[in-house]
Write a sequence for this structure.
């Protein structure tokens, strides 16, 4: 029993707001992505989407070669839970963090992104002090205009600099085409993706031509998994959102391959006027940076969120709602919504079958 959750209870008995995961749809999404990556390109799913060791283990069991984390603190939690092949697809910098990473490298095969010499120096000093070696991939800017090297010359200089460090192991490159994963027209998304892939793969080949060994060439998100995932020279894909398929991604990709598996269960707490209902899920249970979430009820539309309330506008077909009724809300952005909750209520045939801890919730360091 966890906060009044009892295995076997009906969905209607789950205290709300609650993050609910349909196990059958989730497992189907998991299998479909695993089936795609049976060739030379491998899946290294991004756990920033789910932040849950149980889900990471299920992804590994389905064939993933390891996991991708956004932050060092996520990687620490995952390593504690037995996931030890980890790519931190981000720069780790700041007081004490290189030392934490070096300590983690004593017990896990950890790789981290870099894009400047000062960070490389800090990581090397920490690794030498702890007697570990940290795997390093250079992040290449492929159009996302975030972190990453801006030229082949800069990338080559950094790679040579890394190879000379005793505490570091140069592993390869990563480049995320995040600027196009939400491009609605598939043809346009593919063109932008392939352009980004070319930058990354050409850079890898340039390094090889200069005598460097490039083991990892990492790219891809859910919106481009089947584009980057077949591009010659890419070795692994970091897709994460496919397991849940939030409303934003479904709006771009449809539901033909992956189906929505996650929602926030809410309760109507007030019906002050016809055509209006207030639910108990607000901004502390749902995020809206990708647009307002969607009620899974025909004739209902979420019109606004305050801290603890959601405002539903009801057409006549949905105006039967009364206080105490449940309304499932489909998150517009799964990754940030998950980070608001402590656990998944896992359901099958409208019964609670498991409770999975979101152990990386709040792990943003």
């Amino acid at each position: 029993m966890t906060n009044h959750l009892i295995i076997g209870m009906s969905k209607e008995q789950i205290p709300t707001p609650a993050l609910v995961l349909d196990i059958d749809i989730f497992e189907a999404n998991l299998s479909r992505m695993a089936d795609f990556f049976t060739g030379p390109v491998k899946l290294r799913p991004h756990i920033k989407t789910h932040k849950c060791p149980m889900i990471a283990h299920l992804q590994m069991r389905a064939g993933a070669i390891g996991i991708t984390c956004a932050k060092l603190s996520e990687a620490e939690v995952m390593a504690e839970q037995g996931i030890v092949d980890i790519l931190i697809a981000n720069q780790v910098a700041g007081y004490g963090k290189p030392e934490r990473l070096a300590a983690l490298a004593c017990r896990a095969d950890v790789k981290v992104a870099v894009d400047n010499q000062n960070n490389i120096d800090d990581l090397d000093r920490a690794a030498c002090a702890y007697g570990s070696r940290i795997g390093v991939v250079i992040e290449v800017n492929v159009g996302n205009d975030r972190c990453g090297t801006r030229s082949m010359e800069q990338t080559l200089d950094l790679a040579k600099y890394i190879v000379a460090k005793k505490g570091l192991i140069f592993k390869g490159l990563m480049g995320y085409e995040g600027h196009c994963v939400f491009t609605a027209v598939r043809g346009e998304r593919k063109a932008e993706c392939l352009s980004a892939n070319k930058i990354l793969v050409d850079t890898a080949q340039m390094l090889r031509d200069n005598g460097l060994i490039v083991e990892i060439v990492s790219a891809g998100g859910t919106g481009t998994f089947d584009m980057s995932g077949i591009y010659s020279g890419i070795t692994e894909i970091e897709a994460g959102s496919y397991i849940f398929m939030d409303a934003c991604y479904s709006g771009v990709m449809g539901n033909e391959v992956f189906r929505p598996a996650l929602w926030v269960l809410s309760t109507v707490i007030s019906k002050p006027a016809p055509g209006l209902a207030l639910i108990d899920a607000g901004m502390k249970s749902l995020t809206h940076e990708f647009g307002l979430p969607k009620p899974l009820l025909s004739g209902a539309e979420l019109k606004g969120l305050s801290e603890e309330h959601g405002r539903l506008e009801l057409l006549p077909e949905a105006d039967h709602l009364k206080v105490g009724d449940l309304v499932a809300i489909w998150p517009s952005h799964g990754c940030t919504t998950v980070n608001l909750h402590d656990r998944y209520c896992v359901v099958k045939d409208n019964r609670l079958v498991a409770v999975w801890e979101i152990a990386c919730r709040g792990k943003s360091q």
Notes: The longest helix spans residues 186-209. Residues 55 and 356 are 8 Å apart (CA to CA). The mean pLDDT is 97.
